Amino acid sequence: MNVPNPVPLLNVSEHLRVRSQGRIHFGLLEISESEPNCYGGIGLMVESATAVLEARISQSGHSRCVVQADAYWQPRIEAVSNNWLGSHGSLPVDSMRVIESPLPHQGMGSGTQMACSVAALLSAAEHRRTQVDTPGVENVAKLFSIESLSKQSQRGKRSNIGLCGFLEGGFVVDRGMLPASYSDEVPLPRTQRFEFPEWPVLVLQDTESRGDSGHDEARMFERCSLASNPNRGLMLETIEHEILPAIASKNWEQFDIALGRYGRWAGKIFEPVQGGVYRSPQIEQCVDVALKLGLRGAAQSSWGPTVCVFAKDDEHATWCQSRLQAELPRLKVSTTRGVNGPAQVEWL
After folding, report:
1. pLDDT digits (tens, 9 = 90+) for 155-196
2. CB atoms within 10 A of CB 157
3. Under CATH, which number does the domain 201-336 receive?
4. Would you call 240 helix, strand, or coil by DSSP?
5. What DSSP character marks residue 73?
6. Domain 12-194+340-347, classified CATH 3.30.230.10, yes or no
7. Contact, 174 vs 144, CB < 8 A?
């Protein structure tokens, strides 16, 4: 989604730009806050659904920032800016402009990536004002810990996958939170990232449809969190003993089988409100078509409506894309890849 009627680029000597990537979420391990691993899960950063923002650095602090964005993203960008203003007292930029934005509510992490991008623009601009030797391109991981990024972006309550992916890229495992009753245990780091193979990712989207969010999503979580996930242990074992070893050894077939199994368990958490494993009949149809083509790892990303499928190589991806598009003519079927690096700050 591009901003209509774009204005000319601002003075490049005073500008910085952040480019972030999209995020696939393969499902949560647990949503009951009284249980371990709550809001943990697995996900992957991908080249599609990118967000690109530009800002003009201010030589002195401001209490306002002019935001050039469409009607959906403008208030969300302003909310992150106001959060910064409340904690720092002034803004290090006087304008921000959206160059490229992903479609919202497609299950691709657009809200988290946009919020993180705004936080990165502000943090990098502040750093620029105090560090004269700032290089031309800066790694966002130098600007934040995952905790400080969560605080500044106001994201990550239900998953740290998008935050970790913004900072490091790759395939991300989020082990979730420990309840207060487990306070004596020493947990593993909540998030870990892993280098992802060059397997093409097929993205199936109905761009006219939107996934659940806001109050609707909150009500679904509230209803489904009354009982703990009986398959949480099996999902953890699948991650540790099948999915991660398959990624490390580049065993596509093992990954494909294990991911499909994980996704079905993740979907069962929300059966009380979905009426089935998947969020909609259309998503279920996508998974069925993929299965008929021998693709067992078709996964609903977050709430959908996006479904992702992994191919073993480029030739396989071309064949899969052609067959999937023929079987699902109403959907947009595209091919992307995983991203193993962080979002980037570029000084213009």
Report:
1. 987 889 999 999 999 999 999 988 766 655 545 679 999 999
2. 9
3. 3.30.70.890
4. helix
5. H
6. yes
7. no
